[in-house]
Amino acid sequence: MTRLRRGIAQLALLLTLSLLAAADDSPIGKDRTYDFPITAVQAALRQMGAYTGARLPTLDGFITMAKAEMPHYTRPYYEYKIDLEAKGSAQTVVHVKANVSAWCEDAESGQSSYQAFASSGRLESDLLDRLADYLVNNKSSLVADPRVLETHIAEVRQQETEAQGRIAELEKQLQAPDPAANGATGPEFVAVGRPRALVLSAPQEKAEVRLRAQQDDEFEVLEHRGRWLKVKLDDAAAGWLDASQVKPDRPPAENASGSSTTAAAPAGYTVVRENISNFSGDWAPLVGKTALYVWARPVGSSLNVSPAAKLKFIESLFSERGRVATHNSQNKLAGLVVIFLDQEGGVAAASISDIRRWLDGDLSNAAFLRKCSLDPPSQFTLARSRSVSR
Length: 390
What we know:
SH3 type barrels, 3 domains, 390 residues, elongated
C-alpha cells in the first residue's frame, strides 16, 4: 500500500511539472526594468526565494477564471518562470510569468488530474514589487556580495579583453605611414580670410562660381596671374581666387582621402586610419553612396574617453573634413563616418550636404545634430545639449 501511494505521489508530481512546462509556452507575463546590474538582480531573486515554487491559499484572484467556473480543486500551486536581460552595465529587464496549477476533481466523471490555469497577473506584479523594494533596501549588501562582485569583475575584464582584441585587429590593417618629407620645397598654400569667398571658373569677376569657400579653408596654389590665384580643387579641377581674399598658410598634412587638412585631432583621440568606400550601414541618407571612413582610437593606454571628448572630436572632424569635401567640385563623397575604437565604441555619421548647410549657417547646431546618426545614442549623451563649435 505504501508503494502504491508513493507511486501515485510521484505520478502527481510529474503531471504538475508537465503542466507547468506546457504553461511556459503562453506569452502572458510582465516586464519591468530596474536600475541595477544583472548580477545584483540575480542575487536578490535568489535571496528572495523567487526560483522556488509554493502553495497558494486559493485560486480565486490568482487566475483569470471566474470563481463560479472553477472546478472542485485542492493543493493549488505556483512557480515563476523568470528571464533576465541586461541593458548595459547598470540596468536589467526582468520578465516574469507565473505558472499556476491545482488538483481538480470532476464530480460527474469521477476523474481527477492536475490542471494548469492562466495567471491573472497578480503573482507577477507581487514579485516585481517585492523585488523593487528588496533591491532598494539591500543595495549595499547586494553590491558587496562577493559573488556579484566576482561576476562583475569577470564581465569587465572580458569586455576589456574584447576591446583590446578589436583594437589590435584593426591596427593590423593600418598601412605604414608615409616617409617624412625629404626637405625639398613644398607647394604653396593659402587660407581663405573671409567667409563665402568665391572660387571662380576663370580669372574674371563675372566668371562662373565653382564654390563658395568658408573662412580658413585651405587651397594649394597652382599659378599666379596678376591679382588672381589658380587653386587646386581636386585631382581633375581647379578654380580662381582673388588674392585679396586669402592669406598665406603652411602646407597641411595629407589625409587618406587624398585631400589636405591642417586640423590636429582634439585631445583624447587620434586618427589611425582613413578610407573611402561605399557606405555599408543602413542609415538612409548614405545607403548606396560613397563615404569617408575615419577610425579614431583613444590617445595613450586609455580604453575609454568621456562623451565630452568624443563630442569634441566629431565636431572637429565634421567641420574640417567637411570643408575639405566642399573643395571637390565633383562632390564624390556623400558623407563622413567616424568609428571609435575605445571600449564603449560608437559610430557618428553625417551627410556632406548637411555639413555644408551647417558650415554655411543654414542649419543651427541643434538642427544639424538631429540630422546626424549617433550610434549608440548613450555614447553621445551630451550631443543634444552642447553647442557645436565651428
